[in-house]
Amino acid sequence: MKILRQIMHTFDLHVSGRWFVLSMIVGVAVGIGAIAFYILGQLVVRYTLGEFAGYIPPSPTGERGLFEVSTTVFRPWMIVVVMTIGGLVSGMIVYRWAPEADGAGGNTVIDAFHNKRGIIRPRVPLIKMVASAITLGTGGSGGQEGPIALIGAGMGSYLGTRLGLSHRDRRILLAAGMGAGVGAIFRAPLAGAIFAGEILYSDSDLEADVIVPAATSSIVAYSVFSQVLPSETRFMPLFGRQLQHSFTSPVELIPYTVLALLMIFAGIAYVTTFEKTGNWFRRLPIWPHVRPAIGAALAGLLGIAVLYLFSGDKRALAVLGTGYGTLQGVLTESASLGIPLLVAIALTKIATTSLSIGSGGSGGVFGPSMIIGGCLGASIGLFFHDLWPTVVVEPEAYAVVGMAGFFAGVARAPISTIIMVRALTGDFGLLVPTMLVTTLTFVACSRWRLYREQVPTRMDSKAHRGDFIIDVLEGLKVSDVYPKDQSIVMIPEAMTLDEIVHRLAEHNQHYFPVVDQQHRMVGIFSDDDVRSYLFNDSIWSLAVASDVMSSRVVSVSPNDDLNSALKRFTSTNLDELPVIDPENPGTLLGMLRRKEAIAAYNQRLMEHKQAAADG
User: Fold this and answer.
1) Residues 109, 179: contact at Cβ < 8 Å?
2) Dist CA 319 CA 345 (whole Å)
3) Which H helix or E strand runs over 25?
4) pLDDT higher for 349 or 585?
């Protein structure tokens, strides 16, 4: 690390080569972390659910299981036991060593970016990896994106801290690590890069500075992570290459609009249930370490209830774990599941995810969103296929669009979600209806979002507070602000201290320019400078203004922008600065007060906000 720090310091801060090197290092680290997370999760599944319940959740086409279970005896009720123990172990680990690693993980990353200077404790990625592998591996309902986002962000933050980077640069590395994790685990490097810049804000804003570093680290992490996958699925979309749908008729936008309305109501229900469940668990008067166990047990019972309700159909167990195996069937042959099972999976998935993650279990919310949106979308597709078969020919297309539309609304990330779903399915023929549905859900769900730490725009982020002060002030000149009609008392440099003391008693002025015989300014003093002589009246008749003043005058000119003036205020801790004529050095034009500069900034900022609101 010491050698790396020396190498980094040889590059200029703004040289792209420096960021290329840093992003590659983050990508390698996150790729290795994604491999460890993936293998650990597979091991937990094999030796918990597989060993004791005789159940290995099915995998999607592009993700083959690394381990197989030898027993074929399926014990449904053991799933509840395994989940409860898994929740207990996960809770003990998280709340003992890293409480900020509980829940989905995305909010922790967003909060660190905006409010904590990009700092995540070094232990958090490791704790999150272990706790999430246990939660998801034992059947907790959740996704992989939240854990891997926090793992990657923690690695980026750690590297930035060890290299002594600025707060801004550490934030960029944090976001690059987050994008690399998402891009690697979902085999979608472009989506990961856009996700890293988009997920930080709830309105239509983007953290543009992180896109290129995140894209570089995503590509590297994706390449590293792919090496652990079987060769036949190494560069395959998660749900295979066989999903090729098309959009051929504008009339079909009618059922897609109905789909969007359903996604809006489902999104509101998801966010509301998730938040209320989390609040309920936080109010429980019990040790927080055991709350995830209670949530996991309740989620397991719901999963078994749905299993028996549908006559032991194991596809119903998509309400537990990631559920990607069942989603594979939804995307390829939704008719075999039928509308009742699809709706039951979607609605129960809302409840099981809220219980598993809202109770403090460790997992993401993107994976469950894909299940909910995909199943509800497929149910709408099947409904309109029966009602309007000449228009709705491919019900599975509605599952693909539903996945994107649902998460885009509740996560406030429409662009990255569209790219993500396209990358996961390998299906690029549904861009128009996907854009329609995601736009509608994004606009309608503005009050309901999963990531509560998001801020509306960059202007609202503490990470950019100084940037926008500079942008606003650079448009204002000193000549626009300082009073031109000031009556300033100027002190001749030969005036005695006795005369100065009496002059101060007659005026409320705090800073007094000192001028020579040609009325050119040669120094300045404040009333505080004079007070230090008040208790020594023996020198009042001896000392003159030139003895009291400071000849190193910090001044501004009328053509200086207020950003430069504000920097001089803060660097000298002065409340007033003399305004000097640049054509006639030494000629005082007036005094600029700090409060006038701040008032001008506030006025301009209000004008900008009003213009944005009117626009």
Assistant:
1) no
2) 6
3) helix 16-47
4) 349
Cα-based distances in Å from 541 to 31, 498, 538, 545: 78, 6, 7, 11
Please calculate the CA angle 69-70-71 and round it to the nearest 5 degrees: 100
- Enter the tokens of residue 87: 């929740």
Instruction: Report which secondary-structure segment, H or E, holds 324.
Output: helix 324-332
Q: Which CATH superfamily is domain 474-606 in?
A: CBS-domain (3.10.580.10)
**C-alpha triplet 31, 33, 36: angle, nearest 5°:** 115
Domain 250-453 falls under CATH 3.40.50.880: no
The CA distance from 350 to 364, in Å, is 13
Q: How does strand 491-492 pair with strand 511-515?
A: parallel
CA distance 578 to 538: 31
d(CA 67, CA 70): 10
CA 139/CA 477 separation, integer angstroms: 62
Residue 435's identity, in one-letter code, is M
CATH number, domain 2-233: 1.10.3080.10
144 contacts 136 by C-beta, under 8 angstroms = yes
The alpha carbon of residue 120 and the mean position of all alpha carbons in its chain are separated, in whole angstroms, by 13
Q: The dihedral of CA 145, 259, 393, 330: what is its sign?
A: positive
Q: What is the mean pLDDT of residues 268-274?
A: 96
Q: Scanning the structure block, which residue is given the tokens 């006025």? A: 603
For residue 11, the model assigns a pLDDT of: 46
pLDDT in tens, 416-436: 999 988 888 876 778 899 999
pTM for this prediction: 0.77
- Could you state, in order of their start, the residue ranges of all structural domains in the chain? 2-233, 250-453, 474-606
Q: Which residues, other chains included, contact 384 with Cβ-Cβ below 8 Å and sequence gap of 6+?
A: 255, 258, 391, 392, 395, 398
- Using an 8 Å Cβ cutoff, are 326 and 345 in contact? yes
Give the helix/strand (H/E) hosting 580: strand 576-580
Asked if residue 57 lies in contact with residue 321, where contact means CB atoms within 8 angstroms, the answer is yes
Task: Please report, rounded to a whole number, the percentage of residues in the chain having pLDDT higher than 70.
Answer: 92
Domains 250-453 and 474-606 share a fold: no
Nearest CA-CA partner of 108 in 94, 89, 91? 94
Q: For residue 331, give the H/E element and its range.
A: helix 324-332
Both structure tokens of 256: 């897609």
Per-residue CA distances from 185 to 105, 138, 569, 576 (Å): 15, 19, 49, 56
Please, what is the Cα angle at 461 between 18 and 611, to 5 degrees?
115
For residue 328, the tally of other CB atoms under 10 A from its CB is 22
Amino acid found at 437: V
Residue 549 exposed, middle or buried by CB count within 10 Å (0-12, 13-18, 19+): buried
- Supply the DSSP string of 444-487, one letter for each residue: HTTT--S-TT-BSSGGG-GGGHHHHHHHHHTT-BGGGTS-TT--
Highest mean pLDDT: which of 222-231, 267-276, 442-451?
267-276
